[in-house]
Amino acid sequence: MQDKPTNLPTTQPGGEPLKPFTEVVVERRATNRFTPDEVPEESLNAILRLGLQAPSGYNLQPWRFIVVRDEANRARLQAAAYNQAKVGQAPVVVIAVGMKEEWKRTADEVFREGAERGAGSLDTVEQYKQGALGFLSHMPMDVWVNRHTMIAFTTLMYAAEAYGFDTAPMEGFDAAAVKREFGLPDEAEVVALLAIGRAEPPDKAYPGRFPLERVVYSERYGEAWQSNDEG
Ligand SMILES: Cc1cc2nc3c(=O)[nH]c(=O)nc-3n(C[C@H](O)[C@H](O)[C@H](O)COP(=O)(O)O)c2cc1C
């Protein structure tokens, strides 16, 4: 496995500072129309590297990403995504995939290397692995890979926004068609698509969110969280 990424670009491609996290979260919109402007290779690699720093259960990292930039391939992906125009427009579309079996073959490497790096004990690696396999044997794998892949996917999405790009997450696709068109094996679960590029004006309106008091509870379900600030 690799060490933490170093030398990530600390500015947007034009030299402006990266967007602060609060702005990234609040100002991000699911973009409906993209310009053909490219995402520079350096930014794209930084976005991908940041995405891969996401946490996952037992650090098993069951996610895989297919970066689709070729125009003909984007057209094929658009066809598999109920013809959503943004798939063909955006210069980059990432197919996020969760692998339901592959982690069983890489668990040993993950646990051993974690222990060697000091995040665990070498003496108990085998015990730890058996515990993980036992726990995960009760887990529906489609749910489990979705859970983890979406964290990496979301990290990618926010990283792209921090570098000044616009994004569109998508669940509207025919998973069987995506698997067929992009050579994915049976065990692959197609989780989501992420278009990355530059939004074509006008900006999409903010559709609003439920207030805190309605969806956050204090201590037990149904006891509304009382926030004293107006935020
Ligand atoms: C996992 C996920 C899947 C989505 N799938 C689609 C999609 O297939 N097509 C689409 O136009 N928008 C899709 N959206 C965008 C949502 O409609 C949008 O995020 C939501 O309306 C809130 O708007 P906002 O992101 O601009 O705040 C998806 C969003 C998420 C998080």
Structural descriptors:
231 residues; alpha+beta; NADH Oxidase; four-stranded antiparallel sheet; 4 strands; 40% helix; globular; binds flavin mononucleotide
What does this structure look like?
The chain is of the alpha+beta class and 231 residues long. It has a single domain (35-199), classed as NADH Oxidase (3-Layer(aba) Sandwich), CATH 3.40.109. The chain has nine helices and four strands, in the order ααβααβαααβαβα. It has helices at 21-27, 41-51, 71-80, 85-89, 102-116, 125-136, 141-162, 175-181, 212-215, and strands at 63-68, 92-99, 166-170, 188-197. Strands 1-2-4-3 form a four-stranded antiparallel β-sheet, sandwiched between helices. Helix 2 (41-51) packs across helix 7 (141-162) and helix 5 packs antiparallel against helix 6. The longest helix has 22 residues, at 141-162. The radius of gyration is 20 Å and the shape is globular. The termini are far apart. 27% of the residues are buried. Bound molecules: flavin mononucleotide. Residues 29-30, 84, 169-172, 192, 204, 207 line the site of flavin mononucleotide (FMN).
Structural classification: alpha+beta
Q: How many domains comprise the coordinates?
A: 1
**CA distance, first residue to last residue:** 42 Å
Instruction: Give the fraction of residues assigned to helices.
Output: 40-55%
CATH architecture label: 3-Layer(aba) Sandwich
What is the CATH topology? NADH Oxidase
> What is the top-level CATH class?
Alpha Beta
How is the secondary structure organized here?
Layout: H1 21-27, H2 41-51, E1 63-68, H3 71-80, H4 85-89, E2 92-99, H5 102-116, H6 125-136, H7 141-162, E3 166-170, H8 175-181, E4 188-197, H9 212-215
Antiparallel strand pairs: 1-2, 2-4, 3-4
Helix pairs in contact: 2-7, 5-6
This protein binds flavin mononucleotide.
Flavin mononucleotide binds at residues 29-30, 84, 169-172, 192, 204, 207.
